[in-house]
Design goal:
A: about 350 residues, mainly beta, B: about 625 residues, 22-stranded antiparallel beta barrel, 5-stranded mixed sheet
Amino acid sequence: MWGKLSFVLLLVVCTLHSCVHEPDAVPAVQKGVYVVNEGNFNFGTAEISSYDTEKKSVVNGLFQAANNYSLGDVAQSMLIYDSIAFIVVNNSAKIEVVRISDFKKLRTISIPGSSPRYIFPIDENIAYVTDLYAGKVHVINYQSGAVVKEIAEANPWTEHLLKVGNNVFVEERNYSADNASVCSLIKLNAATHSYVQRATFNGSNLNGLVLDKQQRIWIAVEQDSTHGVASALVCLNQDLAEVKRLTFAMGHHPSNLCIDGAGEELYFLDKGVYRVSIDDVAAPADPFVPLDNRNFYALGIHPSSGDVYVSDALDYVQPSIIFRYSNSGALLDNFHAGIISGNFCFKP
Amino acid sequence: MKKQLTCLLLFCGLFVNAQTKVDSVALPEVVKVDAVSVQKEPSLTALQYKSGKRLSEALSEFSSVYIKNYGNGQLASLAVRGTSATQTEVQWNGIRLNNPALGQTDLSLFLLGVFDRVNLVASGYRGTIGGTLQMNSQPPRDSGIALDLLLRVGSFGKVEGNGQLKYGNGRFAGSTSFTYAASKNNFTYRNTFLEGQPRTKQSNAAVRQFSFLQDFNAKVNNRNEVGVSLWLTGANRQLPPIMSKQQGSEKQIDNAIRLMAHWHGSYSALRLSQTSAFLQDEIHYINPEARIDSKSQMQAYRNVFSAAYTFPFNLALQGELNYDHERAGVSDYGGVKSRNSTGLRIYADYYLKNLVKFHAGFRQDVVCRRFSPFAPEISVSVQQTLKQKHTWSAGLAASRNFRFPTLNDLYWLPGGNPSLRTEKSWNGELSLKYAYQNYFSVSVNAYAIYVRDWIQWVSAGPYWQPENFKRVFSRGAELAIDAGNSPSAKVTFRLHSSYSFTKATNLDNQGLYDQTQGKQLIYVPLHNLSTAAELQYRRYYLRLYNNYTGPVFITTDNSQQLNGYYLCSAELGKDFVFGPNQLGLSFRVNNLFNTSYQNVSQRPMPGRSYEGSLRFNLSRR
């Protein structure tokens, strides 16, 4: 009798235990893209989506599914480094470090009082983090989660960063492009975590920073309408001296500057998706993908396939739609991601 | 992006268009007035029990109106029947208070204890697309002196105090009121957005505010009366972080000066009046993290002249002429911006055998040489009482209404759009009411509002810009029931209940992939129910306030929503009467069932809390 009862009790306990929701492990995307969805500011609806181009399947809400809590408020960017991924959650002042194989959280790096934007690991322990307001670049040990240094010579808003050799180049942005006539880029020494130099450019803002196959830096400079300075794609050497410039007509606003995996073709958003070779001498006149009454918000180029991903944020208060184009400009497919898809992340 | 949004949210009330709707008790008038409170009548909704509280709290308890509230003492905006907060007009003694830069009004800044009456007019009133909230203050008409004092203390550092002195000798009359409210708001809640859902203490949420009002009236002679009023309000509010953000240091200081003078003349069948007011709002927003220290000052000079003439054949003709000058000094305008507006409204009421009332009129405004749409209004209402017990009434009304863009919409840099058109609406309403003496009444309103050229801030490349973006169709119904037994009974019972159903949908898709057509607007609950009940025995009373707010969508394609919630509060008290004087004691439990809820996503609200009140009313004739 007691034996049967014990067995039944054990069965009940096991059944109940199995009812307790355990977060699901989310398999890594082998061929495809991770989409970083900002979510609405102060709504806490940031999330990660993934799209598998072979299965043509999309998974939304990856982080919540894998970890059983919400990602936070305004996911700004994501970067995969070896077997881990960093997700920078801007208005939650934190960076979630997840294992890419199952998307489980490894650790949460909080930087109190910060407003982090992008992260770039410079070695096996140290990463640089840019900030919307801090006026400094945070140097963190991403293994321990500690902030080890602040590089304080930066302008208030730092954005994209790029490591070339022993230097890290950081894009500085102006809050109000309407009142600005100068924008800038700084160079940091990654060995000493110190400021090296700043280069300034005529224009109201910088809108992207990439490296081409010749190890040259390309930046997108926004026009300064007050002083009649047109937008341009500017190519710099590593001493931040201008090598060449592709100038646009007034009224163009190149942003979201990207480069293909080979480092040969530049892509950017303006009145559609545009493409230009690093060897061209003039800005492109016609879009690679026309806007067609869409609200393009983010752009990403798959490093190996060359597929072009572009998000349409629609009215910013509903899930974005992602379009995937081939590198010849043919629409391959589209899918719905989360709210305000603002960044694409690919496995290197 | 976030920086831009911070600024836009602060000054524009941007993309989250606070949509709500209203509760309304149908009267056989064109204008449906929900008599939210009448201080001198022993009503369930008597304002005297609410002194020191914020207007937004009282409205939520007394009616099924939905108020979008960012937290205790934080921004609270009212919108009516699926329209927006900027389409709702807030008035003080007939003068429009809406901030000329923002267009909307924060109801948390209005403390009760200084008004004698608050009315909520559903929609389509005097050219307004949404509702009109009327707050009135006036000195006593009789001789004598009356002093009301109130002190309330409660959980989370709540302290509220009110003093009001009214005095008059039949010719001169004055009223002096002061209200103070403070709270630390350091309540604890379960943070469902963080790992492990920890208990979290609300931080950076302390609020201190005051309100001072001085009214003075004088009867010049039997025909003429003049008066002046000065109303000062101030609020010093910490702005708490959202649930997904653990730290915050934002702060906002709001100060307002309102000065008003009026004259009323009555000459047999002719009545004239002139009211002039100077309004000044200052907002000082500080966000150390974002390096923002922003001061804005908005001023408005408003004037209303009205004339009414009653003909001997049951016809009344009335006209109103408005002249306003508005100016705003906002750093993001690149200088001070101003504008003048003039409005004319003429209407006539004709009564047929005291049974049927016909109403017809129009309104025409001119703002900076731009004409508003011609806005006609027409209605017919019928009322009949049978055997002095049963009263039936019915009304049918239609009107065209409009709203001019705010100064932010026009001049904000970057993005301000001087070529914006006015928002326009057609409002229609059917109302029915039955009342059995003073014991029972039930009313039903059904309405429809069609709005086009709805202004919304949308992305315009590198910045945001307001555009005449969408068309909205809002329709719904409101039910209100009042019941009670004889006031002379040993045990008295009273009930006031109202329910609103609001279906407010977007009519158009913006492009091929937009999925918002036919979807409910965000932050507009389909269902809202409010019930207040009172049981009284020998001046002991027990009151129960119940409110159910239905789920609201937080995405425009209706794919995500915020859960609905039910709240119940109970108040037990006794009034001690000493001749004409009264001492009142009460104890109240708010959120009796400790419901965990958010009115706005990521903005936690307090669980169960307690408060005790001491009230003293002295009167001398």
